[in-house]
What we know:
2 domains
Amino acid sequence: MKDPSSQKLDDPSYVLLTAAFNEEAYIEETIRSVLAQVRLPKIWVIVSDGSTDRTDEIVRGYAENHSFIRFIRRNKDQHRGFASKVFALRAAWQSLSLETYQFIGHLDADIALEPSYFAVLSKKFAEESTLGLAGGWFSEKIGGEFRLSRGSSPASVPGALQMFRRECYEDIGGLLPIEYGGEDWYAEVMARKCRWQVRSFPALTVRHLRESGTADSAVRYCYRQGIADYSLGSHPLFEFAKLTRRLVWRPYVIGALARLLGFIVAYFSRERMVGPDFVAFLRKEQMARLWSDSVALSKS
């Protein structure tokens, strides 16, 4: 981490990176919500990650009329699963190698923002020089209504809307391509490991436009999350405690069990995606949280 006192705050420009795969139903609303921002991005690179619908056509149309929107087309890495998104974002980042900017944000192609979102977020960064990763809170569309995502925390930023101070992003080396996902969690842990602060702000609520999936797809997603948890080195005790808490959320019982199964299967059959220093740092954090939770519970 660089000395915060050396960081300039007189040019709070930001760039956005978006990886889109077959997002014709949502990406236009995402684009319009960015165009409505009080503070527009300096550059917005949208990568079509092998889309086969009208995503390319929609993005090209807006890029022709707005010079800060840049379109990149690439072939999707079919054999790399969730990591394909990371490779798409890396391609977008590499295209900015000669550009100057202070902040870099990841924005999914199915997100809608309030017009003041990036203006407020820029102020948060200006107020706290050690803030390296920040964002808002996530609201999911369930049954046609938007509700705050269960489990939201001021110490965690959803990957769909992570904004980094440039120095922080360079410190962590960008995202890690992980076959079963978890790149956003990796970024959070790496940011703290590099002594940057990570915070999300509940007053900055964003809308996830995609309706929550079916029970079957949700179970598969949770199973893959369990594999990702193991791949990043999550402590078995922490994993068990986390999933035990989720078992009391009745709609999440099956998902919690699927995630636990994924973790157990990976424990016996897969290698980790990170080195021992990352695992040690993560587990130290997790054990501290478990201790803090147990102390709070004993006093209640």
